[in-house]
Amino acid sequence: MIEIANKVYYVGVNDRNKSLFEGLWPLPYGVSYNSYLIDDDKVCLIDTVEVDFFVQFIENLHAVLGDRQIDYLVINHMEPDHSGSLALLKKYYPNIQVIGNKKTFDMMSGFYGIRENTIEVKNGETLELGHHTLQFFMTPMVHWPETMMTLSKGEASILFTGDAFGCFGALNGGFIDKDIDTEGYWLEMVRYYSNIVGKYGIPVQNALKKLAGIHIDYICSTHGPVWHENVEKVVNLYDRMSKYETDPGLVICYGTMYGNTERMAEQIARAASLAGVRNIRLYNVSKTHHSYILQDIFRFRGLIVGAPTYNAGLYHEMDVLLQEVANRDIKNHLIGWFGSYSWASKAVSAIGEWNENHLHFEQVGEPVEMKQALTPEIKEECARLGREMAAKLLAE
Ligand code: FEO
């Protein structure tokens, strides 16, 4: 049994087998699906786990409860990595009452055909369990329409946040930040946020405003460690990311077929470094998964992208990356770009169209276009682009 505080138990599971979260995002360190049990006069479960882990989940519940029943299940988020065990759970606990909001129950009916034994709650409403009082906060679009958070007030103030403040990375024996080395989780939190929640900066800001002023001893997210010593740090990180605030630094990403466009990227990076930029990340978009590039685009203010022309259009992997960036509505960035062609020019103008029509970042320098291979003149143009970006970043 893993007690977090005050008869609130961790009953979640680890998934070290899945390769891609949502079929899209690599999981080199796995992921946890967190669920929590409040053992009070009324027993209350907060969220469930991915259905493939139901056997482990039910063992975790029995370890705390034995043969006792569960009175309530709060569903903070309906995405199946958290609601997936709902239908099976009802077979073990047929009298369980499900607590959610109107949108929760619309989805519960659609996903699982379950409509009975529900208690609908609205923002700010409370429910007494005995020694714990639950209060519900509607936090739509963090990151689905039905998402909400549940605050448990008792000896400790514990906020169950759904996906918010979560991160990739399975739990390796310890569950609370005070008991573990959290170092590896911070970048995975940025990658999780930028990939999964990143589009919803305004809803995250609205949620943070709703929570402002509430004392929180523990943040219990549905993914990653329980935050206790780092409550302020994770809230500040979410605040910064949802405002699209960045650190000084430069991401240069490029597509390349035979290394010529890559050489342009190297020239730009070298010039930016010589000009004094310390944080530079250089990525081949065909080699590094977009989730890591997005993570660093969220972190750093400067972005320079480049690619060859391919089939009279933009090199496919760069097209996909720019679509991912545009999809996140990322703001407050500087952009420069470059490209190449062998006989018909397109890549440079295509990147320009991406920025004008979708990204709306502030352009730095003139785009550099290369025909076939580097010349001394193109080398100097690349270096100039690197220096101009550096000057802009360092001036801030
Ligand atoms: Fe962890 Fe939005 O599901």
Structural class designation: alpha/beta
Question: Based on CA inertia axes, which overall geometry fits?
Answer: elongated
Strand order of the largest sheet: 1-2-7-8-9-10-11
CATH structural architecture of the largest domain: 4-Layer Sandwich
Query: How far from one another are the termini?
Result: 51 Å
Low-pLDDT residue intervals, each spanning 5 or more residues? none
Give the amount of beta strand, in percent: 15-25%
Helical percentage:
25-40%
Most strands sheet: 7 strands, mixed
SS element count, helices: 12
Question: How many distinct domains?
Answer: 2
Q: What Rg do the Cα atoms give?
A: 24 Å
CATH classification class of the largest domain: Alpha Beta
User: What is the strand tally?
Assistant: 23
Give average pLDDT, whole number: 97
**CATH homologous superfamily designation of the largest domain:** Ribonuclease Z/Hydroxyacylglutathione hydrolase-like
Per CATH, what is the topology of the largest domain? Metallo-beta-lactamase, Chain A
Task: Describe the secondary structure blueprint for this structure.
Blueprint: E1 2-5, E2 8-10, E3 13-15, E4 20-21, E5 25-26, E6 31-33, E7 36-38, E8 44-46, H1 54-65, E9 72-74, H2 80-83, H3 86-92, E10 97-100, H4 102-112, E11 118-120, E12 126-128, E13 133-138, E14 148-153, E15 157-160, H5 183-197, H6 201-211, E16 218-220, H7 231-242, E17 247-254, H8 260-274, E18 280-284, H9 290-299, E19 300-310, E20 313-314, H10 316-327, E21 334-341, H11 347-359, E22 362-363, E23 368-371, H12 376-395
Parallel strand pairs: 8-9, 9-10, 10-11, 15-16, 17-18, 17-19, 19-21, 21-22, 21-23
Antiparallel strand pairs: 1-2, 2-7, 3-6, 4-5, 7-8, 12-13, 13-14, 14-15, 19-20
Helix pairs in contact: 5-9, 6-7, 8-12, 10-11
MU-OXO-diiron binds next to helix 2.
GO molecular function: electron transfer activity; FMN binding; metal ion binding; oxidoreductase activity
Family: In the N-terminal section; belongs to the zinc metallo-hydrolase group 3 family.
Domain Flavodoxin-like: 250-390
